[in-house]
Amino acid sequence: MGSPLVLLDVDGVLNPFERPHRGYRRHRCSPNGVTFRLWLNAAHGPALLELAEAAGAELAWASYWCDNANEWISPRVGLPRLPFVPIPRFPGIEEGRTLGAWKARHVAAWAERRPFVWFEDEPDATECIAAEEGVADHLLVAVDPLLGLTDDDLERGAAWLRALAD
Questions:
Q1: pLDDT at 125
Q2: What is the largest CA-CA distance in the chain?
Q3: CB atoms within 10 A of CB 92
Q4: Which of 23, 66, 76, 90 makes the best surface tag, with the fewest CB within 10 Å?
Q5: Three-class SS string for the chain?
Q6: What is the pLDDT of residues 35-58, one digit of tens each?
Q7: How many other CB atoms are there within 10 angstroms of residue 32's CB atom?
Q8: pTM of the model
Q9: Pfam families from the xrefs (predicted)?
Q10: How deeply is 88 buried, as exposed, middle or buried, from its count of CB atoms within 10 A (0-12, 13-18, 19+)?
């Protein structure tokens, strides 16, 4: 078992879907030439770095943003360049396949049996990641996509990581 991972989604987690509470700022970004408006909270970066450091964990992106998160998200929330799970674009609706299952497949393979906390908003991701072959101990913190990442979400991840170390 390697060191644990702290995996981050962007949309719905660091970028809430509704106008967020205090501490967020509006940003424009243009990955792949398409302009997006994001709500980001600069306090998230230091909190996530502290969480990872306290647990001896590695932070990584687990988002369709892939490496674009390093250019457009990291500097706005105070994170360094992070490794990322290479998640290809969802190929479309197929029988029995959901967005959560698609992401879970790639996350499980990339984690290579390392334990992880995944901050994710896909409603079916928990059951999908658990169904993946050889997935290590993990906690999927189901972030409310309308609120984005909260202190309670971070504490749930921190508590799980502390228990993992015991």
A1: 82
A2: 46
A3: 7
A4: 23
A5: CCCCEEEECCECCCECCCCCCCCEEEEEECHHHCCEEEEEECCHHHHHHHHHHHHCCEEEECCCCCCHHHHHCHHHHCCCCCCECCCCCCCCCECCECHHHHHHHHHHHHHCCCCEEEEECCCCHHHHHHHCCCCCCEEEEECCCCCCCCHHHHHHHHHHHHHHHC
A6: 888 999 999 999 999 999 999 999
A7: 5
A8: 0.91
A9: HAD_SAK_2 (PF18143)
A10: exposed
pLDDT in tens, 10-34: 999 999 998 777 889 999 888 878 8
We report the CATH number of the domain holding residue 115 as: 3.40.50
Q: Give burial (CB, 10 Å; 0-12/13-18/19+) of 91.
A: exposed
Residue scoring higher pLDDT (10 or 103): 10
Q: Rounded to 5 degrees, what angle do the CA atoms 158, 163, 166 make?
A: 130
CA 121 vs CA 2, 32, 109: distances in Å: 25, 23, 19
Amino acid 91: pLDDT: 64
